[in-house]
């Protein structure tokens, strides 16, 4: 094993030990610990944990590469994922916290007083979380595969083993504090390389202020090589696809069960709002840095790699070719490598950047540790969501309401273990790149849940039949369009990653039509919905006032 691999492996092992240690120290002892960390997480730390939960392998590994390869069109990912948090923070998170349940399926089941709606929501949550989880485990395979120069599928199995240990032990309580540590590690690892690259390229240590000039230079290089300009809009896809993807990621963000449940871990509605505000700050640091990565990496490749003799390429190219994520064709003009001869997988850009810029062994190791932190932090949250959907919403609420606390904890831990193994098997041969797989999860979340959650809070006329019809219609519409688009059937230029626009539309229509054509919901359910919108007190009829202590009870 060379020095680089040894340093990287050492840093990853140390961080693994830290995560497992935190999980053991904060081990869940009761079900409230396991599902919502006993609602005792301060807003600041919960915001940081949300950032760790949110900074998935797609954000850390895939997003910068997507922007580098797609240019302007890749910005839909950054804008959609960030904008969705505004929807969640202002329209849903405080209200869902006030209702005081453990999970999204439990909110839906109790809000509409329907076990059918609860079951459908639980199954949909498991489908969405599995889809997202496959992307995270595939990301861990990319990191470990490159680090140890082994096939990615072996890296996936190693990631599965680590995640299964700490998520099973700690539950939401352990995962929360693990995600805080993972955020600190991943954001440090993400920012340091672009600071060094900024110093190398521009002499300024503030990359967010300097990369604009680099983008201008990229435009000049593209024109010289006869390529489409890096910042030309809608060159890699249609305007309709850009807007559909932007919309899909926004509504998907606002409806992701594993993100929403993080707002259940605080004590009040006010704390839920502040959690969202802190999360936006912590998330913004990475999302403002992704375009910098994209510009700097493309600039270095264009200047230092493109145009080089094919038999004298940098050593890092051979290492990544061995992983199967980089291909170099032999058709270079006069034996020189051309941009068109590089087939770059979007998932390697961040991982390869320290090597591309020759930033040194320690920085390469930091990136590897940060990438694993990103994959594991989101995977932990997803596994808790799968576990709670099965053990709490299906087993406890529908199958065995008399189950003891110990039996419910056991069921939750078994669900995590099984889910990890199944998702790991599926991640051995992922059906797409990481950002694509994650976009499917967002499309499914938005198409299934966003209209029902939004209208469940803001429209008291919605009833259980409308909610069930909307969730089923949205889920199947999204799944069917993803499948059709993957096989060449494209409507209005919208690809599989923008499928959420169709699912959400069908969902809204079905909710409205079915709710209006069937009976009114009971008055107490209408009153509960109206009460959700007010933080302290509300008047729903003249002379009648409901009080709420924001305790979530």
UniProtKB/TrEMBL annotation:
Signal peptide coordinates: none
Membrane topology label: Multi-pass membrane protein
Pfam family, one: SSF
GO MF annotations in UniProt: transmembrane transporter activity
Keywords: Membrane, Transmembrane, Transmembrane helix, Transport
Top-level division of the source organism's lineage: Bacteria
Keyword Aminoacyl-tRNA synthetase: no
NCBIfam families for this protein: Na_symport_lg, sss
Similarity field: Belongs to the sodium:solute symporter (SSF) (TC 2.A.21) family.
Identification of the protein by name: Cation acetate symporter
Native source species: Salipaludibacillus keqinensis
Lineage: Bacteria, Bacillati, Bacillota, Bacilli, Bacillales
